[in-house]
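Standup notes
- HV: blocked on the assembly model, inputs below
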Amino acid sequence: MTLPPTPGQTIGPFFGFALPYARDSALVPPTAPGAIRLHGHVYDGAGDPVPDALVELWQAGQDGVVPQEPGSLHRDGYTFTGWGRAATDRAGHYGFSTVAPGATRDGEAPYLAVTVFARGLLDRLFTRAYLPGDDGALAADPLLASMPPERRHTLVARPDNHGFVFDVRLQGEGETVFLHHERH
Amino acid sequence: MTDTVASSDAAPPTQAQITAEISAIGREGAGSGEPGQQPRLDYPPYRSSLLRHPTQGLHQVDPEGIDLWAPVFGDRDVDPLEADLTVQHRGEPIGERAVVTGRVLDGDGRPVRHQLVEIWQANAGGRYIHQRDQHPAAIDPNFTGVGRCLTDADGWYSFTTIKPGPYPWRNHRNAWRPAHIHFSLFGRELTQRLITQMYFPGDPLFELDPIYQAITDPAARDRLVARYDHDVTQPEWATGYRWDIVLAGGHRTPTEGNGA
Ligand SMILES: [Fe+3]
């Protein structure tokens, strides 16, 4: 039996009183050992920041194990659930505190799965944030290898003082590569 | 009411113009063999989509690793009282009390068990508790319009709420959204993540609304419309609506191990 899927719709402008919650973007406390900041802007096709977007992260732990622990909505400060969300602010900026994920399989370049919602965006977009550092693993990654070389950089975060910057460009110059998962 | 249309050098489009654009795209979609089961990301009648849709086409990828898993939520995350939006304040909210319930299923018809469902909505007058909502309708001090629950072992969710009102927006002149409840859903895999809107049956605003019409297949957009269910209606208490949700993908069998 195959049921037809329920279509998506835009998150709209008014999610701000409903979806964000206390410590939503702190997968680990910023002061935790190994904590990094992953942050950036969401931009539209005119290069303007998008102040009403929601970004969600989903990732493995530093050991590469995929967390299956509840507690993302009421964080205890110790349990790593691997999931969080951050609304963009008035300047279109979002930020998470988290840890660098480990590879979930041998030979895989570790990445954080990023989901983007926004007013004006009629359905969610999936992308990935790879962390720089291991050029060999990035070069060998099947997804990165499958896309035009000039677009790969859109999925690789760049380092800054506290962690990494990952900008999302919904359209136009430097448009982020967004993903469609094959039905499997 | 004062002029609420954002300043712009051009006059805002009329409903007739937007409706004509919607019809033209609908005709072109019907002839193209395109399924139209999901909203078009590039849908000019919804003006805010113009600069916010990717132009490059989505890159095909085999889900792997973390894509094949979804976050887990549990009793720690959600208080059962959060499923009743009518008891969050001291008094009774104004409007038509309604029970909205249904099942969350994957594409194979299997229930999505013990998973998070989040909703948010306007009050009976079409007003959100949100500082950006400038619609001059009353705020109801007894209604926030936010709910959460976990599905049960058979995938059922249930909310008690107030039927939301339609509300105006600035897409075009005299634009009104059909009454809707925003839903946020998780499946068993990241790829099933869904945010959508549930509508109420028979709404006269459907054909005028570029967000609803962005799903060009009529059968597909009809899947966003709950049906009135008298078996859900509760005597002398609340009307009842039934709405099932199907999350595409999600074919990992429960016995497959963690890829670590
Ligand atoms: Fe809405």
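- HV (later): unblocked. Chain A has a mean pLDDT of 95. The CA atoms of residues 25 and 96 of chain A lie 5 Å apart.
- Next: hand off to the docking folks.
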